[in-house]
Amino acid sequence: MSDATFTFRVDDDLKRAFVESAKAADRPGAQILRAAMRQFIAEQDAVAVAAGWLPAKLRRARADVAAGRIYDHDDMKARFARYRAAARAAAI
């Protein structure tokens, strides 16, 4: 793994508070920043997955409707009534 260097400007108060917090945690500032970067990446990955899930589900649902693979409310109520009856019969 090659190392890269980040150089960026921060407010003096922010830097001072960060350095104090890092010392209080007995951890190097670089270690804390790397952990924060990894956490940010993981959060963004989770957001991307969540953002992609809904559009994909909608595309599948629209394709089902276009193909006629739909059930009206009464059909679904009847279907689940049969499932419940079968489950009750199996439990006895």
What's the structural domain tally? 1
H/E element order: HHH
Q: Given the C-alpha coordinates, what overall shape results?
A: elongated
Give the helix/strand class: mainly alpha
Fraction of residues in H or I helices: over 70%
What share of residues are in beta strands? under 5%
The count of strands amounts to 0
Tell me the distance between the termini. Answer: 62 Å
Indicate the low-confidence ranges by residue numbers: none
- Measured on Cα atoms, how large is the radius of gyration? 27 Å
Major sheet characteristics: none
Task: Explain this structure.
- Helices cover 76% and strands 0% of the residues.
- The chain contains three helices and no strands.
- The termini are far apart.
What's a concise summary of this model?
This protein has helices at residues 12-24, 29-66, 73-91. The chain is mainly alpha-helical and 92 residues long. The relative contact order is 0.04.
List the helices and strands and how they pair.
Blueprint: H1 12-24, H2 29-66, H3 73-91
Which key features would you list for this structure?
mainly alpha, 3 helices, 92 residues, single chain
